[in-house]
């Protein structure tokens, strides 16, 4: 690949990583399924969780509680292009999250998760998509309930 093609591939994959967390935190969580290939996979080896295929991904991410407020901060995104149609990435994240959110400002507490994702990407028809996303979570805890009434 020439340097410009590599740069464009890296940027497309970086945007998928960010689109994933934006859709979870600011959009419609079930829509993250559209960022995956038809046979895309999301896994969490720690508890054996494995979700395969767009329909299953849509149902899994769409099952988040409606009153959940979350924000993820992404960092250390490193995309490695392996070929014109395949790439991988590692990115770190920190998640702040509460359930029972009814509006207003929630006092900041510690994050409930700190970890990293390992991703693989495939390009088909000119579009880059996630083929797999693996969650590694060395720091995690329960999601607290918001105790702040809407203002």
What's the structural blueprint in terms of helices and strands?
Elements lengths: L2 H24 L9 E9 L4 E4 L1 H9 L6 E15 L2 E13 L14 E12 L2 E14 L11
Parallel strand pairs: 1-6
Antiparallel strand pairs: 1-2, 3-4, 4-5, 5-6
Describe it.
The chain has a six-stranded mixed β-sheet, with helices on one face. It has helices at 3-26, 54-62, and strands spanning 36-44, 49-52, 69-83, 86-98, 113-124, 127-140. The longest helix is centred in the first third of the chain and has 24 residues, at 3-26. The termini are far apart. With 151 residues, the chain is an alpha+beta fold. The mean pLDDT is 95. The protein is built from two helices and six strands.
Brief summary:
The chain is of the alpha+beta class and 151 residues long. It has two helices and six strands.
């Amino acid at each position: 690949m020439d340097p410009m093609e590599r740069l464009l591939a890296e940027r497309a994959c970086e945007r998928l990583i960010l689109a994933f967390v934006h859709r979870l935190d600011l959009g419609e969580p079930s829509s993250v399924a559209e960022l995956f290939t038809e046979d895309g996979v999301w896994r969490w080896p720690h508890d054996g969780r494995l979700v395969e295929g767009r329909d299953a991904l849509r149902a899994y991410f769409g099952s988040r509680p409606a009153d959940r407020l979350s924000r993820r901060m992404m960092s250390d995104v490193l995309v490695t292009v392996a070929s014109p149609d395949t790439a991988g990435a590692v990115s770190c994240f920190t998640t702040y999250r509460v359930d029972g959110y009814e509006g207003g400002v929630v006092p900041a507490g510690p994050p409930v998760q700190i970890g990293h994702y390992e991703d693989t990407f495939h390009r088909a028809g000119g579009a880059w998509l996630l083929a797999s996303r693996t969650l590694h979570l060395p720091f995690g805890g329960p999601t607290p309930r918001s105790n702040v009434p809407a203002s």
